[in-house]
Amino acid sequence: MKIKCTECQHVSRITHTKPQSESTTDLYCDCGHCGHRFVFTLSFSHTVQPPTFDESRWLLNTVRKLSDDDKKELLGELLGELTK
Ligand SMILES: [Zn+2]
Q1: CB of 25 within 8 A of CB of 19?
Q2: How far is the CA of 28 from the centre of ligand 1 (A)?
Q3: How many Å lie between the centroid of ligand 1 and the Cα of residue 1?
């Protein structure tokens, strides 16, 4: 991954990373060209294609990340499908 310096547009070096959450990490950058030191935030956006190794495990992990209210709503919808 290449991060361009926001001051001079040269490629900067990532000196270290600091996780902010399960899906967000701060990248501490150092521009060797102009000396600018700055932080970029890298974050997960969305899945384009679920992993093929185990879709049921991926789905379970995804559901576990939902709020309790969203889990209840999903469970209600699934139970509604079972009774049809
Ligand atoms: Zn720079």
Answers
A1: yes
A2: 13
A3: 16
Could you give all domains of the chain from N- to C-terminal order, each with its CATH number?
1-45 (2.20.25), 46-84 (no CATH)
Is a pLDDT exceeding 80 seen at residue 82? Answer: yes
CA–centroid distance, residue 39 to ligand 1 (Å): 13
* % of the chain beyond a pLDDT of 90: 71
Give per-residue pLDDT as tens, 18-37: 999 999 999 999 999 999 99
Helix (H, G, I), strand (E, B) or coil at 27: strand
